[in-house]
Amino acid sequence: MSDYAFSEIECKIIKAQIERRAKYRQEYLKMRTDPCKHSQEAGHVFDPALQRFLSYKACQTEYFVPTPANAVRAIFTVVLPMLSYGYLIYTQRSKKENQIRTGELRYRDRMFKLV
């Protein structure tokens, strides 16, 4: 097993994952091709975990409870990046505009020009 740069434990874990995946695949195919069991479900295999997840996603906003932690998370993931990016653009453009107006940046050295 040292040829693959994996330890013995990692190889056992990988083999167990492969076996588990094959077992679940066989079980799914058995359920999918059974003509009697899933005829009432329009030919689809009913997965209760998937159904719970989809039901949760459909009703997620109804069960949302605003907390201070949610507010902080929203500020750090939405508001703060937008404000910092806006400030960055504003300072860069102001600096470039000042250089153009004072003549420090010649027309031929400008990045976007008409001619």
Secondary-structure blueprint:
Layout: H1 8-32, H2 48-58, H3 68-102
Overall structural domain count: 2
Helix-strand string = HHH
**How much beta, percentage-wise?**
under 5%
Structural class: mainly alpha
How far is the first residue's CA from the last residue's CA? Answer: 65 Å
**How many extended strands?**
0
Label the overall shape.
Answer: elongated
pLDDT under 50 segments (min length 5)? none
Whole-number mean pLDDT: 88
Largest sheet: none
Radius of gyration: 29 Å
Which range best describes the helical content: under 10%, 10-25%, 25-40%, 40-55%, 55-70% or over 70%? 55-70%
Q: DSSP helix count?
A: 3
InterPro entries: NADH_UbQ_OxRdtase_NDUFB4_su
Membrane topology: Single-pass membrane protein
Subcellular location: Mitochondrion inner membrane
Protein name: NADH dehydrogenase [ubiquinone] 1 beta subcomplex subunit 4
Describe the 3D structure:
The protein is elongated. It has two domains: 46 residues, no CATH class; 51 residues. The mean pLDDT is 88. It starts with 7 loop residues before the first helix and ends in a 13-residue tail after the last helix. It has 115 residues and is mainly α.
What is the gist of this entry?
The protein is mostly helical. 62% of the residues lie in helices and 0% in strands. The chain starts with 7 loop residues before the first helix and ends in a 13-residue tail after the last helix.
